[in-house]
Each structure stands twice: as structure tokens, then as C-alpha cells.
Amino acid sequence: MLEDVVQSVDAIVIAVVAIFFLFVGYRPPWWLRTHSDCTKGVRSVPGPYSLPGVGTTWVFCLGVRTLSRLHEYYDDLHARYGPVAKEECLGNVPVVHLFDKRDIVEVLKNGGKYPLRPPAEAIACYRRSRPDRYASTGLVNEQGESWQSLRTCLTPALTSSKTISDFLPEVQQIASDWCNLLRQSRDHESKVSNLGDIADRLGLEITCALVLGRRMGFLLPGGESAIGKSLAEAVRQHFLATRDTYFGLPFWKLFATPAYRRLVKSEQAIYELAVELIRSADDSTKDSAVFRSVLKAEIDEREKVAAIIDFISAGIHTMKNSLLFLLYLVGEHPRVQGKIVEDGAYAKACLTESFRLYPTANALARILDKDTELGGYRLKGGTVVVCHNGIACRDEKNFTDPDKFQPERWLEKTQTSASLILSPFGAGKRICPGKRFIEQILPIVLTHTVKSFEIVAKDKLELQFEFLLTPKGDMAMVFKDRV
Ligand code: HEM
């Protein structure tokens, strides 16, 4: 009897080991050490200790790390393992992290015909479950030919220089409303304590004005409308839930985890609010180049709503965070403020330098479309790689005094070699279609703000990872009237 039990336990252990060895591809570290010379493939890439089945996800399961500090975890990964490091997801699927300029450039410049960005699977899964609302997973998550056809139909108006130049007078007006709102939100020491909320309202106003062609009034004092507040909060929850379903264990595939439920709730809220905004479109809305081009695109009607939703969601928080980082750096360096007032090129250089130091999208993920040698390892096509542009931008191999805010470096001709590691909007064919627009408008907002106020950043900036890199908590800064 006892012998039978021992034999069946043995059989189970052998079966489990065989499954991990043959199907999951797991190899214990001692195996990798002895076989590393002949297999300089992904298995030899150094990284945290990987357990069978769960890979390196135990780091997060055991609470050793939290997702809100994921940016610090990657700093450590770089410091410990060097220019190439590997994590393993559930099922020991490798994810390779690249920190070296050469490898990052290699990946970003060779995206192939349809560069593959790993989709947010939970969003894709939810959208597939709602064919009444969505015809596809949308521009941000689609891949291959269907991505290309959406991109071709939906983005030309957004990226056109005419759309942007026609929009600039509107931006001047919005920037002046933003300064009025700042003025009215100060306390007796000229401090604005809820700068994050106010920047959210600016992100909403600008994105809606661009996409829907309509001033929503989110910047009017007391104009914090219910719809604006709900939309900004839903978009924030959407990013947080995307982070938790994307980087956390994928239990949401088995049952509706709290993170998945939050994702669905925020996706539904954004959908309903966007439908309401589209429904209430008036004549001015119909004049918007972006809105018009989406409406007349030859695609399924459902794709049009999804596109408006994706544009609004992609624009609000990225813009808010980028503006907050920019104001913080300028507020910390009073010497640059006079130069911004005098010279438009200098305001642009401040923005570029701010993107170098605090890119809200601090890493870019891709799926390799073919076997590629990176950092001395042969990685197979299909491997997920993450390019850590944010970390590479603070590496002294790539920039002198990398942690210093020196906008001047962007006024020198020699800095052009930084392109591709400084990619705050991504790179290649999947690059952000909002890039040109943002690059034009943020310097305008900055210049207006600096002309109106002397900005002082008093508190130290702390960072948090919310799928995007964001300032932690409510940001407070002083805005003294400039005399
Ligand atoms: C400071 C503001 C912004 C930043 C930092 C930013 C950053 C990014 C990044 C890093 C990507 C991924 C690109 C890649 O994988 O190579 C992206 C994609 C995208 N962004 Fe932005 N973005 C911003 C504003 C906007 C705005 C205003 C819109 C639209 C109105 C927008 C729409 C999109 C869309 C639709 C995609 C997906 C493109 C595709 O996959 O083809 N973004 N953005």
C-alpha cells in the first residue's frame, strides 16, 4: 500500500518535472551556468531568481516589490544585472529588459512593417466581449494589418501640420484661461496645492478641444463640471487597472479580479462619457478636423467611437504628467525662467530636457518580429523586449551630467545623436500620433505660465508608477505674480 503511494508520488513528481522541462522550457540556474556557452540565448540572460511556473513574479506576489514603484525595480534590475536583464512571467515566459543605447536603437529602428507592441490583454479581452460596442480592440491594442488600416484611416488629421497650426490660436486662449485658473486657485502665500487636479483640467480641455473641436469650459473657475471630473477620474482608474492587469499575475483570465472589474468599470465610464460628448456635438464640433476625419473614415461605426475614446484617454494624463514634470523642473531652476520669456526655442529645449529626465512613458515594449542579437544574446522572434529609454537617458554614457536639468544641451547641434533613446512619444510606425501636437502646445502653455508667474517648486518631487510615470500625490507649487 505504502509502496503504491510512493510510486504514484514519484510518477507525479517526474511528470511535473518533465512538463516544466519540455513544455514550459524551465531550466534551473545550475543548468544555465553549465550550459551557458552553447546556449547564449534568452535563457542565459541574467535576472532575478526564477521559480518553475511562476518565474520571477514571486517578487511582486510576496510583496517584495509593489507595482506603484515599478520604476525603481527596473533601476535596480539595471544596477544589478547590467545592460540586459530578464524577468520571467507566469509559465516562465521571458521578458527581456534593454538598458543599453545600442540595443534600444536596434529594436526601435527595426520594427518591421507592422511593429508589434504587446497589447493590454485585459482591455482587448473586455472589448472582444462587447461586440455591441467595439468592432476591434482599437488603435492602441490592434496588431498587424488591422492596426495599419485603423492607423491610416484615423490619424492623418491628428498628425497634419495644418490641423496643428489652425489649432494654435485656440491654444493661446486655453493657456490664458489656465493662467487665470492658477491665479484663482492660489492661497494667501501664492501656493496652488492641487496642481495635479488643475493640470488634469487643462489636459481635458486641450484634448477635447483638439479631438471634439469644442471648448468644454473645464478651465473656467468653478467650471469643474461633473462630466470633466468623472472623465479625468475614469481615465486615471483605467491606467491604474491597466497597470495591475498588465504587470500583475493574470488571474483575471480565470475570474473577474478586482483589478479587472475596475478596468471594466472605467472602460464603461469612459465609453458612456465619450458617447455623451459626441452626442452633444454642436456645429463647432463638426468643424474640428480630427472629429470630421474620424466621422468620415470608411470604417465600422463602432471604430469611430472607440477612436475618439482612445484619443481622449491617451491624451489627458500623458499631457497632465508631462506638464507637471515640466513646471516642476522650471520651478526648481529659476535661472531658466527669464530665458523662456525671451526665447521660444529655449521653451522647447526645456520641454525636451524635461522629457529626458521625466518621461511619463518611461519604457517602450515591443515583440521582436524576427530573431535578433541584442547585448550578445540571440533572442528569438516573438520575444517580448522592453526598451528602457528613461533609464538610458540618465546614463552618463549617453549624456554628460545626466541628472542635471540643462535645457542648453538641446540648443547645441551635437545632441542630435540622442534621437531614439530620447523617445518620449515612442518611435517608428507606432509612434504617438499626438507627438507633433504636444510638442507645439506645451511650450506655448509654459511660456504663458512663466510670463504670468514666477514659479517656485518647494516640495521635492516623488514619483509613482501608474502605468505612466506620474508625480506622487497632490503637487503643490508657488505661482507669484511676475512684475
Ligand atoms: C505628452 C503627451 C503624450 C505622450 C508622452 C504620449 C506618449 C505615447 C507613447 C510613448 C506611445 C507609444 C508609442 C510606441 O509604442 O512607439 C503613444 C501611443 C499613442 N498615443 Fe500618445 N502620448 C501623448 C499624447 C497623446 C495625444 C494628445 C493623443 C491623441 C489625441 C495620443 C494618442 C496616442 C495613440 C492613439 C497611440 C497609439 C498609436 C499606435 O499604436 O499606433 N497621445 N503615446
Unreliable stretches covering 5 or more consecutive residues: 32-38
Helix content: 40-55%
One letter per element, helices H and strands E, the order comes to HHHHEEHHHHHEHHHHHHHHEEEEHHEEEE
The beta-strand count equals 11
Enter the CATH topology name of one domain.
Cytochrome p450
In whole angstroms, how far apart are the ends? 93 Å
Shape: globular
In DSSP terms, counting alpha (H) and pi (I) runs of 4 or more, how many helices? 19
Describe this structure in words.
The protein has 483 residues and is of the alpha+beta class. The protein has a domain of 249 residues: Orthogonal Bundle (Cytochrome p450), CATH 1.10.630.10. Helices cover 52% and strands 8% of the residues. The protein is built from 19 helices and eleven strands. The strands form four sheets. It has a four-stranded mixed β-sheet. It has a three-stranded antiparallel β-sheet with strand order 3-11-8. Strands 5-6 form a two-stranded antiparallel sheet. Strand 9 and strand 10 form a beta hairpin. Helix 9 packs parallel to helix 19, helix 16 crosses helix 17 and helix 17 crosses helix 19. About 1% of the residues have low confidence. Bound molecules: protoporphyrin IX containing FE. The site of protoporphyrin IX containing FE has 28 residues, from helix 10, helix 15 and helix 19.
Keywords for this entry:
483 residues, alpha+beta, Cytochrome p450, four-stranded mixed beta sheet, three-stranded antiparallel beta sheet, 19 helices, 11 strands, 8% strand, globular, binds protoporphyrin IX containing FE, transmembrane, monooxygenase activity
